[in-house]
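CORE FACILITY INTAKE
Project code: CF-77B
Contact: R.S. (postdoc)
Sample description: multi-component assembly, two entities in total
Requested service: structural model of the whole complex
Turnaround: standard
Below are the sequence entries exactly as provided by the requester. Do not edit them.
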Amino acid sequence: MDTVLEIKDLTVSFDGFKAVNDVSTAVKKGDIHFFIGPNGAGKTTLLDAICGRVKPAAGSIFFKDCGDVTKLAEHEIVERGIGRKFQVPSVFNSITVFENMELAAEKKRTIFSTLFSKLSQEQMERIEYVLNIIGLYEKRFEKPAALSHGEKQWLEIGMLFVQQPEIMLLDEPVAGMGRKETDKTGELLKEIAKDCSVVVVEHDMDFVRDFASTVTVLHEGTLLVEGDMEEVQKDPRVIEVYLGRGGE
Amino acid sequence: MLEIVAKIKEYFLKRNAVISIIFVLLCLAPLFLSDFRINLLGKFVAFAILALGIDLIWGYTGILSLGHGVFFGLGAYCMAMYLKLESSAGKVPDFMSWSGLEVMPWFWKPFASAPFALTMAILIPVLLAMIIGYLTFKNRIRGVYFTILTQALSIIFVVLFIGQQAYTGGTNGITNFKTILGFSLSDPATKLSLYYIAVLLLLAAYVFCKLIIDRRIGRVLVAIRDGENRIRFSGYNPTVYKVFVYAISAGLAGLAGAVYVPQVGIISPAEMGIIPSIEMVSWVAIGGRGTLTGAIIGAVLVNSLKSVVSESFPDIWSYFIGITFIVIVIFMPSGLVGIYQQIKKVWRNSLLLKRKEAAMKH
C-alpha cells in the first residue's frame, strides 16, 4: 500500500523536555492507524506536530507530494488535506448542525468567498451524504447544544470528513462513550477509511483490538513497537510498559 | 404584482417587524418631539451606528474592545476639522493662533473639503484598526489581553490629543462651528436635515451589517467566538477574519463620530477616553449582544434613559445607570432583545398548548 504520511526522526521538546523523541513512522493509505501508549507517551503531541499546532525541534513530516509540512501554518496544512479532531468535542454551538457542516465543506475560505459564494449542488450532496453516515441528517436544523456527547463527537468527525481530507487525525474519539456508541464510532471510522487514512490516539483497548489495522506503541516519547494488534500484544516490551499494568 | 406586495409585507411585517418599527418611529419622531429632543435623539442615532460595529466584533465574534472611543473620536475629529475650517473662512483656526501657530499645518489643509473629511473619518479608523489588529491577532493575543491593549490605545490617544494642543485644540477639543456645506448649523431646518441624514446612515449601516452576518462570513465570525481552534483546523485563517471585523467596526465607529459632531457641535479628547469606551460596550450588553436590533435599541434606550434620569436627578443619575447595567448583565445576559425573544417563546408555547387543549375537547 502507498504511504500517505511519513514522519522522519521527529523530536518535539518543551523547554528541553522531549515529549516526542526521534520518532519515525509512516501511515499507509486507507489504514486505520492507532497510536497507543501510557499517559505521557507523546501521542497527542505527535498529532499536534502533524497538524502544525506545535513546531518540532528536529525532523520532518512528509505528506503525499506536498513535501515537509512542519513549516506551514495550521490552516495551510488543513488545505493540503490533513484534518484534526481534538479530544474535547469542539463544534460551533450557536449555529445549526447543517451550518457547522457547511463551514467545513466549503473549500474557498477567503473573506471574499465567504461574503459572496454559495454552496454548489455537489457540496450540498456531499454534506447530506456525510450527515447520513454520521446519523445526524434528521437533526440537521438543530443546534449542537441539543446533541448528546456522542453525537457531538460524530458531528465533529463528520465536519472533518466533509472537508475530504487525505488523512484524519482523531484524539480519543470514543472517550466518554458507552459500548454501543463506541462500536458505532468504529463502524463510522471503517466507512471513512474507504476514502482516507485515519490516525487515532486511543486508550480503550477493546476499541483498538476491534478496529485497528496498524498499531504503534509509544512510550516516554519514543517508538516502542509497530505492527498489527496481534504482534503488538505479544511483544514482551509492550506487556511490560503498558498492557501489563492495571490488568489490560 | 400582488405577490410582490405580499412578499414585501412578509419581509417587513413578519421577519423584520422590530427593526421596521424602530425606523418608522425614528422617522416620525420629529412630529412629536421638540427640536431640542430631536437633536439629542440624533446624537443617540449616531451612537447606534457605533453600537452596530461593537456588536459585530463583540456580540458576534466574541472579541471585547474597550477602546472604540478612539475610532469614534478619530472620525469625529476629521469631521470637526472640516467644520472648523469652513467656520474660519480660510484663516488659521482660532485655537491654533492662541497656541501661537500662525501657519496652517499641512495635514489640516485637505480637510477643507467635506468629501475628503468624511472619507478620512472612516478610512483613518479602518487603517488604524487594520494595523493594530494585524499585529495583535497575528501574534494570537486574545481575550482579556487584547481588551487591555485596546484600553492602552485609548489612553495613548487621549494623552496625544491633549498634548498636541496647537493641532488638536487640547483638552477643550474643537468647537465653535458655524456652517456645514454653507448651511447654518443653528438653523432648525439644518438640524432636522442632519437628524434625517443620521437616521438614513443608521439604516445603511444596519443593512451593511445584516448583509455581513447573513452570509457565510457571519457564520465564520460566530464560529470564531464558539471555537477558534476548530475553525482554524477547518482551514480558515482566523487572523484575517478578526482583522476584517475589527476594521469594519472601527469604520462604523468613525462614521458615527462624523455624524455626531455636526449635531453636538464639539468634540474633545474626553469622548475618546476609557469611560466612554466602556459605556459604548454597555449599550450593546443592555440591548442584547449578538443581535443587530439589540445594539440599536440599547444605544438609543440607554442614552435616552441617561438624559431623562440626569435631568431629574442630577446628583445621583450615574448610580441609576450603574445599577441598571449590573441588573441586566447578571439577570438578563442576552439583554433586552433576549427577554423579548423569551417572552415570545413562552407566548407561542402557551398558544400552542391552548390550541391543543381546544382540539382535545372536540
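Facility notes:
- The longest helix of chain A spans residues 179-193.
- Chain A has ten helices and nine strands.
Invoice: internal transfer
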